[in-house]
Write a structure and sequence with these properties.
This protein has 138 residues and is of the alpha+beta class. It has 4 helices and 5 strands. Strands 1-2-3-4-5 form a 5-stranded mixed beta sheet, with helices on both faces. It is globular and about 40 Å long.
């Protein structure tokens, strides 16, 4: 059973393991520049990690937020060999509980195609009538 907890500091070893998670999810490829990870994690309002019995990180999710009204959950990823065990749901649960303690009353996320059933099982609803926008040519 995985232990899920809020992460407040990031060692060099943990950053290497987090990069490995992103590679396993195909969000990064081996050899990609991972120097963005530490500032991204430190700049997040909250980061939750899932750890196996040997304290290896096997899942992660983070929150972008002002800490008082709105929040967006980012980068929910679980190592492929640990998927289907409820770890992603545990990550969402701990983050939403912490956000509620902070008084945040609007929590959103953007899910990749194919994740609809997962998020729906966790109590999330698609916001019909809303369109995702992304600035092009960055």
């Amino acid at each position: 059973m995985a232990e899920v907890r809020i992460i407040r500091s990031f060692s060099a070893d943990m950053l290497v393991r987090i990069a490995g998670l992103y590679i396993s999810a195909k969000w990064l490829t081996p050899g990609d520049d991972t120097s963005f990870l530490l500032p991204a994690l430190r700049g997040s309002c909250l980061v939750a990690g899932a750890f196996d019995e040997e304290n290896n990180i096997i899942g992660i999710a983070r929150v972008l937020s002002d800490g008082c009204s709105d929040a967006y959950i980012q980068d929910v990823v679980v190592s492929p060999e640990f998927r289907g065990q409820g770890i992603g749901g545990q990550l969402l649960k701990i983050l939403t509980a912490e956000l509620k303690k902070m008084g945040v009353d609007w929590i959103g996320l953007v899910g990749e195609p194919g994740t609809e059933k997962f998020y729906s099982r966790q109590g999330w609803q698609a916001k019909k009538g809303f369109t995702l926008w992304q600035l092009e040519n960055l």
